[in-house]
């Protein structure tokens, strides 16, 4: 990241302070990164959502309808009102990957990411034009540089994503240099198959498919505790879905740093949820069928960051000299219209 708002200098000063502090052992140098919208792009759709739609497109319509009903039933059984979009996507993936071994799933998911991003475009995408590059190339170069910088200073870097843990694991090492064992994400039920000595997606016959762990919003601190067992010193994210992870990290004893990637560059990437104080209405139906609507912040994390000295807002427009790896020559399918 190039100097713009001064965020680069703030991050480096914090890391230098941690490294120089004899009371903070190396084993406590933990950093957690959100994935979608933090390490790679997430518009117009989450990439995992496109993966699901790609698999559905190859099926006959009656089967698609059946799978969608199975998904809705699983969403209803979570007891969460409402469940986040990333949580819904992870559940939606179960029917179209049911019965795959985890190894086979890894191959299928990684293969999908070689598809061109613009191939899944639709008229409903509005102002969010696609890029004419494979999904795997749409990673944020400055954020990966931050990952590398932290690793060079003996930080252990984890991904903590609302997306599917197996989906993220299929590319995390290749795309970010973060190994599969350092990925936390939403996990579906799986079972061990003795005949093939494999782990298979989906539960045993006497159980219904569903989530084993929900890793968005309040689920992120739970996932961090489950997989890491200690609070991070640094948390990096971009949205309200990261708010609980941010607060959990900030509640640790001693120093902590929160880094929020702000999507405010319409020309080179996308512009959304980038203004503090903005709100929108969200509606969902409860188990009785009643519609409940509430006014929520566009980006709760961004709002809170305005009141905290150790919550750094990184502007894509001002702080990112480049957004994607120049080697990939990322280009849009159409030129954006920026207001």
Order of helices and strands: HEHHHHHEHHEEEEHEHEEEHEH
Percent of residues in beta strands? 15-25%
If you consult CATH, what is the topology? Rossmann fold
What is the radius of gyration computed over CA atoms, rounded to a whole number of angstroms? 20 Å
- Find the count of extended strands (DSSP E, 2+ residues): 11
Major sheet summary line:
7 strands, mixed
Oligomer: single chain
Q: Total helix count?
A: 12
Bulk shape: globular
Give the distance, in angstroms, between the N- and C-terminal Cα atoms.
Answer: 25 Å
Which architecture would the CATH scheme give at its second level?
3-Layer(aba) Sandwich
Plain-language structure description:
This protein is of the alpha/beta class and 339 residues long. The protein has a single domain (7-328), classed as Rossmann fold, CATH 3.40.50. It is built from 12 helices and 11 strands. A hairpin with a 4-residue loop joins strand 4 and strand 5. The radius of gyration is 20 Å and the shape is globular. The mean pLDDT is 89.
